[in-house]
Amino acid sequence: MSLVPSGLRIRRPGRLAAEATALAVALVVAFPLYWMVLSAFKPAGEIQSTDARPWTLSPSLDSFRRVFEQEEFGRYFVNSLVVAVSVVVASSLIAFLAATAVTRFRFRLRTTLLIMFLVAQMVPIEALTIPLFFLMRDFGQLNTLGSLILPHIAFSLPFAIWMLRGFVKAVPEALEEAAYIDGASRTRFLWQILFPLVFPGLVATSVFSFISTWNDFLFAKSFIISDTSQSTLPMALLVFFKPDENDWGGIMAGSTVMTVPVLVFFVLVQRRLVSGLGGAVKD
Amino acid sequence: MATPAHDTVTGTGRSGVPAPRKAPAARPAPGRTRRGAGRRGGGWTPWLYLAPALVVLAALLVYPIYQLGLISFLEYTQAQVSGGEPTSFQGLGNYRTLFSDSQFWQVLLATVGFAAACVLATLAVGCALAVLLTRIRAVPRLVLMLAALGAWATPAITGSTVWVFLFDPDFGPVNKVLGLGDFSWTYGRWSAFALVLLEVVWCSFPFVMVTVYAGIRAIPGEVLEAAALDGASQWRVWRSVMAPMLRPILVVVVIQSIIWDFKVFTQIYVMTGGGGIAGQNLVLNVYAYQKAFASSEYSLGSAIGVVMLLILLAVTLVYLRLLRRQGEEI
């Protein structure tokens, strides 16, 4: 993979201007996150001051303390994590199997299925809140984490299958034949050869299912109606919005706690993500 | 571009809605012969592999869609939900109610306009920065990439709260820097939409930027070098070499953005407090939610959901045709 397409080499002043622009953009893009973390550490007095300063001389953990004491925030955090991890693991495995089926076998309805997966990606999940609400109610799943996990598995699948397809396709067929000649069973090939080879693709796919699940606000708001011990982080954040005066310190501290894990996850898989997207779109 | 002649060639009917829908089902046959039917069929194995996915999708996607359609034809309010009253079939009654409500049309128009603005802004920013990324050295590139990843990783709800706080009339830094005094961004209709738009662009341009950048990097260096040796200008290289090679990626990001921005919920809900003053900032998604869960008009909410589904289905069909025209094998 060439680093910079060499045909695009440009003269020095042009490049310096481009780099200055890039850094300025980076600054603007990162500023909201900086402000969020900063405000989380500001003492209450400074937050409520109309003289907003981009630094603080007396950082305090008060807001974080308030967040973790009020409303079992730690529990919400664990709930969010359980939901997101379950969805990532389940949808990755299911999507891996399905992607293998549609790329390495030719069978009737294959193309139809692929088109259906594509169409399914486009379904606005938010529009399904009402029927899903009744479905969860009928199965006694309201107020449980299951009511958040199951729909998100379903919604991550079509995209995951579509994306993994490119990775499964990229594994040479000769490898598969060689494995069979060496006496490997289909199952063995699937899990011991194909799975490790496709793993980088699974990572890229997981990022998307993790994000969409971790972000979920609508389902958490609609399906967890009375048992707040089953709530997830987005709902916990709303507690700090008050009709008279928002507790901005609490909101920013909660937001920080909610964002940092995803951020860490992203930075960790950053390289895989970029090459993964490249791999999926190159096809 | 699309011409009727092209359609006749590929055998896609074009009269009315049902024809294009049927087309995909009719596709496998030519597709298979082209790729050669000699490859493994695998007997039941592919279906075994597909079974978990199909079960989950049938139960949690297909069935709910069916239910959504069904509820939209029934009378379904609090009385029916709590089990007291029997449901009654309304035919198109709910849709009639919806379509004769001027607020619905206003919300629909706002949704389309808002989504279009978001898509255009996201694409412009994302593509421009992707090109920029290819022209800078590793360190500034990493800095911009990390900043973008940060915005991308930020959950919608935290992004919403942070942006509202940044633009807070009393405590936010933006008004102070811009000298706007205590101007309230969420009070006016347009300024509230503008604020949400900024947040949406902020959190969705990274996807476009990273994807397009990955695509540019995947273009073999020799191709660009050859173009440069032949004396092609920068613009010419972009237009005649890069853009055509990037088209599949551009299609993906455009479609993803349309779909994504058309169904924005969290940002509007959180930033404008459930749809703005007197519902001035409602979009279809929030409107459906308010109808269903706040006023217990489940059937009206479902009807709105069906309308959204149909609009996005239309976008999907356009996407499928684009894919097929590019000759991509599915």
TrEMBL record, chain A:
Membrane topology note: Multi-pass membrane protein
Record field: transmembrane: 16-37, 76-101, 113-136, 148-168, 189-211, 248-269
A Pfam family it matches: BPD_transp_1
SUPFAM superfamilies per UniProt: MetI-like (SSF161098)
Family recorded in the similarity comment: Belongs to the binding-protein-dependent transport system permease family.
Domain ABC transmembrane type-1: 77-269
The name this protein goes by in its record: Carbohydrate ABC transporter permease
A Gene Ontology BP annotation from the UniProt entry: transmembrane transport
Main location: membrane
Alphabetically ordered keywords of this record: Cell membrane, Membrane, Transmembrane, Transmembrane helix, Transport
Localization terms from the record: Cell membrane
GO CC terms of this entry: plasma membrane
Xref: PANTHER family: INNER MEMBRANE ABC TRANSPORTER PERMEASE PROTEIN YCJP (PTHR32243:SF18), MALTOSE TRANSPORT SYSTEM PERMEASE-RELATED (PTHR32243)
UniProt-listed InterPro entries: BP-dep_ABC_trans_perm, MetI-like, MetI-like_sf
Highest classification ranks of the organism: Bacteria, Bacillati, Actinomycetota, Actinomycetes, Kitasatosporales
Species name: Streptomyces genisteinicus
TrEMBL record, chain B:
Gene Ontology process terms (BP): transmembrane transport
Parts of the chain that traverse the membrane: 47-66, 104-133, 142-167, 187-216, 237-259, 298-320
SUPFAM superfamilies in the record: MetI-like
Pfam entry (one): BPD_transp_1
PROSITE patterns in alphabetical order: ABC_TM1
Record key words, sorted: Cell membrane, Membrane, Transmembrane, Transmembrane helix, Transport
InterPro entries: MetI-like, MetI-like_sf, UgpAE/MalFG_permease
Name of the protein in its database record: Sugar ABC transporter permease
Species assigned in the record: Streptomyces genisteinicus
Taxonomic lineage from the root: Bacteria, Bacillati, Actinomycetota, Actinomycetes, Kitasatosporales
